[in-house]
Amino acid sequence: MGLFDGTRFVSEAEKPRCRVVIVGAGPAGLLAAINFLRREKGPVQYCVDLVETGEDYGALDAAGLEKHRSWMIALSTAGLTALRRVPGLYEDYVSQVGVQINQISIFLGAREIKQGNSAEGVAKGEAGEAYVVDRNFIVAALARFLNKQALTLGSGRLTLHYSHKMMFVDPDARRIFVRREDGVERYLPYDLLIGADGIRSAVRAGLIANHRDFECSVSDIFSRFKSVHVALPPALAANTMVVMPQCLPGMNGIGLPETGGKINISMGYQLSTPCDEALRSTDAAVVAAYLQEKFKPSELPWDEFARQWVGQAWSQTGQVHCSSYHSSKLQLLIMGDAAHATSPAIGMGMNTALADAAALDELLDAHADALDQVLPAFSEARVKEGNALTDIAFYANSFSPAQGVRVILAQLVRGFLSKHLGPSLVAPEPMNELGMGAKLSEMYAELVRIGRLPAVRAVNDAARRRHFELRTGMVKARPSRLPAALGAASALAGLAAGVAALMATQAVSKPLMEPAGGMPLLEVCGDPHKFAASGLHAFEPMLGGSFVCLITQFLHALVLEPAGLLSWGLTIGLALPVSVLWNAEAGRTGASGLVRWPTLLGLLGQFLGISVVFPALWLPAAWYGKGDGAVSPARAYASIALAAPFISLTVALFTLDPTSRAWTVCAGLLGGPAIALLPLLLNLVPAPAVAVAFDEFPSAGALVAKQAAAGAKALGHAYALAGVLAFMGYAANVYLASLSYTSLGAACTALWAEATPAVAFMTIDAGVLFLGLLLHLASTAPAEAVAALAASLLLGPGAACALLLHRRETHQHAEASAEAKMVAALAGKKQL
Ligand SMILES: Cc1cc2nc3c(=O)[nH]c(=O)nc-3n(C[C@H](O)[C@H](O)[C@H](O)COP(=O)(O)OP(=O)(O)OC[C@H]3O[C@@H](n4cnc5c(N)ncnc54)[C@H](O)[C@@H]3O)c2cc1C
């Protein structure tokens, strides 16, 4: 049959030919191909080349296709209308592979709220109709239709290039370069090029390369999800879409029925509020136990669910915004995800992709196949829809839980008022129009007009920006106000206790200084003549001035009584994990402020008591400015090695003759600045270099996770060693105390109620140090502080805190290792 051109009938053979190359045999590309081949009666004869990296799903039988299940997609009015334009396509092909939706169930915890339609659902073709189909099953249905259609048209009209990847566009020669799976390469010429090649579109790359005025952005949807297929549990109705906000802490879920009596459950979390650790476990038993405990909407086959869950990496996808969808210069256009990939949050990506293909067909009709008019008209009609789609999907839900609740309330109130007062008084709720065939650009305009979209945009963009800044180390994490307030309070309390203890020691030190004429400690040490006359410590002047004298005398007072050993032992046991903590944290990537200066803190400790300085200065600094990056393993090990001089000098002090020169030298070393200056050596070990870990570049993320894992492992070892040493010291201390005191009460009396000033000072030191460590643990996990407190009587306070810190780092190590594996897997995984 020919075509009447106004003067005569033009035969098929005489019609001008247009070679259309379509890249991507996804839903958009396949429907576009079907539509071109249907344009038999038009003035142009189209020949289609379909290029696709994957295989032809249309050639697979049911069993073969079952192996390619992906995720269920909800098709609503827009997508169904686009499909139904092609007679027989929906009725005979697509409707055979999916499930009609009759009802929506929203689960708030275990409470089910049924919404919507009658048992029969919305009548076919009516607004609000919904049909659910696996992404790959609809692709198979479209491909089968296309393959059959090609058979009726004769040779040359459709050429399939499956297992071919398009590499680039050659703009001057109007051709594309493709490479077959086996490496064979060739060019394909075109008159019209259609990029339906998904989010990482190579055709779009050609647009970017050849048009300076073409603006395009690809960004993360800011969430990660997994999707499993399990048998539909009896508690859930068939043909029902199940919406499960906050079905697990920090997780939203959706369940879509699928063929074969199954349900496809997808659950995801936002990057700013990560899901619980158990869900990141690689052990199916851990995941199953967690789900069984926490997942309230329904019983599910937990073991099978968990098996599939751990067997897949977290899926991530992106969103695309483009300023134009065509190039007249290159004679090409882009559609579907290539033009407007989006978050699945509102379930409209494929609907819009199919609507793009339908819109192109309608524009060819409207402009009598004149491509010079059709291409700009396509951009004019579809750019606003595509960008409205991506923005509504990303800003429909707020990342702030409080704003999220306000948004839901506003939706309910507006819907109710509009229904009962009438749309002339209150405009309908825009989100209620979703999926009913309304134009997305009109919904977008209404959401902007009522101010909702700009409000959520401000919150979500800020959250995304903040996450990015933290991930890349551009800014430091700010702690919540509570730990910061606790830190400040502990700082003031610690400082006050230190100053009070120093003054008390000074005030009551006259009896201690009896041999020196009963003068206060500072006075004796401040005057070398008086000191020499006292005969207190014959070697003292050789070691330096009053500073060393003060501490040496202090230590001298301690070694003279059993309670001195007890209080000093407690302090050293606690100083071991503290030493690892402050020396290692100082070298974390991103550490700033006082945290980076353990040497300064050590020197200050000489004056006020090291334990007093720790909470007074380190804690608030740690909370306000500690790094959240990795620590180098060498630094972690060196941090515990620095405790060696402390321990050996302590042993010397309590075993040597206090009147000997050796004792004085040891006391002078322990009390003098030499040990406090040792951490300067750690400056030779730099913090791990910052690897920029954009979400878009998973391999950089894997490197960061590996660094974190190595540092956490080493720190875990360092705390373990600190714990063992502290426990040994505690055990020895308890044994020695048992020789001197008949009961725990007697020991406590000697440590505090009847303590000499020096012993009381050390008791305060140990107490403040312990409190500081407990607060440090409580700042991130209050339960850990309680556990440390409980274990301290048995293990000693130093060993108990070290054990908890060791446990924390071991967890960090497991988590970072799992993340490194996951991100590395993601980097290698083909993303849709
Ligand atoms: C979890 C999830 C749930 C979703 N739920 C819904 C929903 O409920 N409703 C809805 O409407 N949408 C939903 N979507 C979105 C929907 O899947 C996509 O919008 C839709 O698949 C886009 O179709 P497309 O043809 O444009 O691109 P794609 O489906 O991405 O197809 C692109 C094709 O191009 C091929 N290709 C890529 N690069 C090349 C190359 N260089 N050379 C040759 N071939 C290439 C690919 O192999 C692929 O086959 C969901 C998406 C996800 C991830």
UniProtKB/TrEMBL annotation:
Cofactor(s) demanded: FAD
Keywords from the UniProt entry: FAD, Flavoprotein, Membrane, Monooxygenase, NADP, Oxidoreductase, Transmembrane, Transmembrane helix
Transmembrane segments: 20-37, 484-504, 565-582, 603-624, 636-656, 663-682, 718-737, 758-779, 785-805
Pfam family, one: FAD_binding_3
Gene Ontology terms: biological process: kynurenine metabolic process
Positions of the FAD-binding domain: 18-391
GO MF annotation: an example: kynurenine 3-monooxygenase activity
Record's keyword annotation contains Lipid biosynthesis: no
Superkingdom of the source species: Eukaryota
Keyword 4Fe-4S belongs to the record: no
PANTHER family for this protein: KYNURENINE 3-MONOOXYGENASE
The name this protein goes by in its record: FAD-binding domain-containing protein
Organism: Phaeocystis antarctica
